[in-house]
Amino acid sequence: MRAYRYFPFVTAIFVTALLVSNIIAVKLAAFGALPVGEGVVLFLPAAVIVFPISYIFGDVLTEVYGYARARQVIWIGFACNLLAVAAIAVAGLLPPAPFWNAGIYATPGEAQQAYQAILGFTPRLLLASFVAYLFGEFLNSFVLAKLKVATRGRHLWARTIGSTVVGQMADSGIFIALAFAGTLPAAALTQLAVTQWLFKSAYEALATPFTYLVVNFLKKAENEDHFDQDTNFNPWMVVE
Questions:
Q1: Domain range for residue 18?
Q2: Which of 69, 52, 50 is nearest to 10 (CA)?
Q3: CA angle, residues 224, 14, 200, in degrees to nearest 5
Q4: Staple 30 to which of 13, 36, 88, 210, CB 3.0 to 4.6 Å?
């Protein structure tokens, strides 16, 4: 494959957004009113402020470099996320230093408990996150690539928003279903999935001007505007 000057930077932003979103997702944030408690509209994981960035740059990757390059980056992000999860889990298993685990500002064992509470992962949530990520990102890239050929490269906004609506719907629906089915009523599951889907999709729609700026810059700088007319869309083909 051809080498590109800015491809590593786009990849780095994509992977960083993915990793950071998984770390901060443990916090539930209130959107709609400050201070909290006065007319709050939405309660969502804090990751919603970062995770859509991975979709924005997923669109950039597919639009500029093509599906095959985007597929590589999606798998790189998966591998990096898996490594981060493994490192965090191993660190949690290490015996804590006595002066850290019972410091001035913590009762004995509190620091270790806080670490596990914030950075600990349950197998079910991990499985849900990994499966939702792969389905969502690959659908997003596939739909955008197909729409680009169908529209002959016109109406970028329709491709980025349309692909995000499909990808985020799969991501939100799969994650909520796998992570919380059986623990919450069906109506609550549906509400959570739809709320996250609409929020993330609206996020990218509002970011459309930014997406245009990045795409136009990269197309000129890289002298590339890939069309996936004869592409093998098999998501398992990491190297083509």
A1: 7-222
A2: 69
A3: 105
A4: 36
